[in-house]
Design a protein that fits this description.
Helix content is about 20%, strand content about 30%. It is α+β, with helices and mostly antiparallel strands. A hairpin with a 6-residue loop joins β6 and β7 (about 125-130). GO terms for molecular function: zinc ion binding.
Length: about 375
Amino acid sequence: MTSIQQKGISSERISQSTSVNVDDLECSICRDLLWKPVACQKCETPFCSTCMNRWLANRTITCPTCCNTYTERKCPPFVTKVLSHLQIICFYQANGCQEILPYEALDKHEIECGYQFAKCPGCQLEMLKKDFVTHKKSCELVPMTCKDCNLMYKRNEATTKHTEKICLRKQLKRLKHEHKESRGAIQKLNIELREIRHLYSSTQQTVITFEDLPSAAKNLLHMPNVYKGFRWTKISYMHELLAIKKYSKSGYVSSFLPGDSLHVAFLGETATISIEPPNETFSLISIMACAAWNDDLELTITAYRKSIEVNQHSVILLFGRPQRIMLQWKNIDKVVFKPSGGTAHPGCDEGPGAHVSLTQLTIDDLSLSSSDFLIFD
């Protein structure tokens, strides 16, 4: 489709200088020159891609010519080759454009052509696109935004709605709001810091960092059935070298903490950690986690004691930025992690989605009979 017509190209727009027979280049649906053609796999009849999409949207999946069932394929090469030799007059010739372009360059030109009409967002006057920049500089009704105070106003309102006094007042109000938010964030961090210091001073803790697992530098590996006295279900791990080599665009790469373990654990679905006998309960103090592929991923953490839910906490994880999640859950025997939601981080559209990287787990210092060995299937 052209940028404006949304259908085939009229034969009248084919330049007379073109020495190409176009009789076989007609779309069987719109009867105009083929535009971005596709073809029927069985009979190889070409159609405009837009015409074919409309045909299929309003009918069963049948070929417009002779076939019972339509299966799409690329247009035959000889057709696209002939089309590429055509010279086409710009759609905006009536507005003054004198460009005659190769078939393949037409779409880009018509999107940018200065001879198409545009409407001024201020005075609503229609004019050629090429004249809009000059008009915008002088139009009294064009909306403007102050880069200092972010106030929106029209040019002719500058002396009434955007005076220097108003601008300074708006800036001061914004700075006060930012200061208030910053103070709140600092207070929150100070509270977390005091909690962490208190916990480290009053509790014998074990920080699980996965540093002593068998190397996963070549392939992703599943967590051992029993590790550090816990049973791990649907949790895997990887080495930093593997993350850099195979998942360089992911948040895994930046989830490795400087001077810490060369392994991180990760999960992409509901996963669990549970205590192994003879121990009956443990305390989960905190975890460090981040999102591996998505922005604003939600992680729901649920704690159980004898199959009864006793605690739950949900947090929004940042992409590739490990954050400490303070829990302080005591006397539990199982933890369930459930990742969900979020949107693909820029450049990670082909990633697996809601994956969570676990960098550390901090628990109370239990005397675990199985903490010194790993058990594999």
